[in-house]
Write a structure and sequence with these properties.
The chain has 578 residues and is of the alpha/beta class. Helices cover 37% and strands 20% of the residues. A six-stranded mixed β-sheet has the order 3-7-6-4-5-8, with helices on both faces. A six-stranded antiparallel β-sheet has the order 18-23-22-21-20-19. A hairpin with a 5-residue loop joins strand 22 and strand 23. Helix 11 packs across helix 14. GO terms for molecular function: magnesium ion binding; phosphopentomutase activity.
Length: 578
Amino acid sequence: MAAARAWLAEDPDPATRAELAGLIGAAEAEAADPGGAPDRPGTAEEGTARPARAELAARFSGTLEFGTAGLRGELGAGPTRMNRVVVIRAAAGLAAYLRDRAGKVPEGPGNRDDRNAPPTVVIGWDARHMSERFARDTAAVVVGAGLRAVLLPRPLPTPVLAFAIRRLGAAAGVMVTASHNPPRDNGYKVYLGDGSQIVPPADADIAARIAGVGPLAGVPRPEGAGEMLGEEIVEAYLERAGTVLAPDSPRGIRVVYTPLHGVGGPVVVEAFRRAGFPEPVVVAEQAEPDPDFPTVAFPNPEEPGAMDLAFATARRERPDLVIASDPDADRCAVAVPDASREEGWRMLRGDEVGALLAAHLIRRGAGGTLAASVVSSSLVERMARAAGLPFRYTLTGFKWLSRVEGLRYGYEEALGYCVDPEGVRDKDGVTAALAIAELASGLKEAGRGLTDLLDDLALEHGLHATDQLSVRVADLSLIGSAMTRLRETPPTTLAGSPVERAADLRDGVDGLPPTDGLRYDLADGRVIVRPSGTEPKLKCYLEVVVPVTEREGLPAARAEAGRRLTALRGDLAEAAGL
């Protein structure tokens, strides 16, 4: 209660002040009449309810942890929620970190043409609740600390922010977004001057400075601070995006596109128009940004039902492809026609799109290193080796992939692709959409499709089939219990195959930094188990490899792969106690 009252006294936001005052009042009523006070609605999971004192305890029992994903959490009052107090403190810690790195920084905005001008921080935001407010608070703190803050001109995709950092020679960037999380969430993603997201030890260094921030009254926040960039930064991004395509490549593909109520729509449509593709048909019900995401349960193209409206539009328009962005447009989802399915379309898995883009770049003669996250399929590694190209695995996340030396292409199975690392050192759903459309256009001209190329890859390198066992929990301790159980009693066989190697990724495996995860290598595949870094989920990544030498044998190989994946899911769930 004391912590809650202290927080209330310095909270600058009327909405969260009112929310917190209501909780304090209800908690006081509970104390006065323990049997008569009504429960307050909880917010950790939809539909739950708990007493006000328990809700306060949940909100003030710790802090929202600042890590390599920056900050991400549910909106609301208190240190374990996303709110203006948390954002102002995070911005003050980041500014202190940048000042320490740059040495003495002159007070005030400075002269950006002067070699002694203060470091620049570029700030972007999406269309979620409170995103613009958090962005403007960040700009005010940055300027108040004697640094220069520049804001993107409007809600824009995350890759535009990542591009702008390098384009402007900034020292850091901040993107206010929760990507594909539920509507009640928001987040705070931090980049350094190389255009990549922070990794250790920068995250811990910034977190230490956040912890050292005193009362908010001592954090200068000049009103209206920060410079607003013009549309020229979007123009520069779009010009760069077009360079991912070969000048003479076919552009005849027709696309139905959905931004899933996010900020990708105008940028994706304009990128396609400038590239010379037919203008995408945008799913009307999901075309405009809406922080409530009213037509989907989760604004993530991987979630069941998220693509229903896109498929309905596609049945009317009969395009060649369906493409979707997640709400901040750093991910790209692709669906292909499939007459065997009721909806008439099949979503390609992230690993399939990752392999298709790799094949496209290899066949175009791309040099440099190919990379994938350790939880992604091993197919691209086999493709790279066959092409005589270097390949690297990294930990999950583009904060690691973007730092691979000599990177030409990187992907992760969660629909993230980097096809232009010199322009955007992060996943970019806009340029990935252009590249997959270019590939599909060339195949269409030859009377083929994306699935035909996937068949070719299976015949050349073996059928690589992947799937996930993903368990969302209300009680985070269940994730820790499952990981402990697997560590103490690791499985010796999975889906009838002996586990040839069991590795604890906390120890650092195959040259990777330590991380919380487990890996089981089988003769015909592998399994990786890890807690999600952004959601209350335990994720298990499954892969099986089935040799196949003739096109006629592909259906049987796919059936066999499906059987093995089903067996893997069952065996792993039992081993983890899920």
